[in-house]
From TrEMBL:
Name assigned to this protein: Predicted amidohydrolase
Boundaries of every CN hydrolase domain copy: 4-277
PROSITE patterns associated with the record: CN_HYDROLASE
Annotated keywords: Hydrolase
GO molecular function, one term: hydrolase activity, acting on carbon-nitrogen (but not peptide) bonds, in linear amides
Domain of life of the source: Bacteria
Amino acid sequence: SRYLDVAAAQMGPVARDEPRSSAVRRMITLMREARARGADLVVYPELALTTFFPRWVIDDESELDAFFETEMPGRETAPLFEESARLGISFYLGYAELVREGSEKRRFNTSIFVDGTGTIAAKYRKVHLPGHDEPQAGRTFQHLEKRYFRTGDLGFPVWHACGGLMGMCLCNDRRWPETYRVMGLQGVELIMLGYNTPVHHTGYEAVDALAGFHNHLSVQAGAYQNATWVVATAKGGTEEGSEMIAQSAIVAPSGEIVAMASTRGDEVITARCDLDLGRFYRETIFDFERHREPSAYGLIVER
Ligand code: CDT
């Protein structure tokens, strides 16, 4: 057995006018609790430092830029890195990233993995951007990720850390089997995932009523079919009037939920993950080398 103690640090709403320093203070409180409960890794939500701003049309560029980080760590996020190094705990953080190249601005929905020395060891930029690039008439809340972010350009990397092979993705990525499979083919053992999911994200009542079910369905299937642990962390609760699902969960390679949040606010859940557990699946039913038939899958990448 190779045990890794992990935590999901679910966050309740972050208000539009809540300063980064306040969100970071909340995150440090959660990090300390995670560490006190034995965790070596803590996973925060997607866009953890700010409110989920893609719900609004923001035409003013400086107003939009204010939601983005131009450096990581920056002045306000540095305390998180310092506390991680002090406690010797690794963390995953989702945030909006602004890269300036000459006069051009490139914006990504990004996550990083910071090791227990407070050093950024891996970066991921969200590949599956949901929603629209133009505002939709008749909606109380927009979902304008396609307007504000570029498609991630870093693929789905995996890397060695915390005694295992780690990977990451962000929110909508979790609904796509390809996300897990690309990491599964690289032998991933634990995937970190942050999300912001408005309950009313499709506008179809019958579908939206199943938002919690579809969340867990996607993560549990991805974990099982790729023999990996998944640590899925929500920003939940009612944020600026938008109701977001919570139900953060730690899912085993069996597909079973081994820990789940019971509130919609700031809450730490933990689990002791045996990174060897995936072998039972990887060496039997999901022995990719023996059982996959890639010659029959061409359509997946052709269209
Ligand atoms: N943040 C994010 O990706 N949210 C989406 C819901 C919105 S779809 C318009 C999700 O898949 O949870």
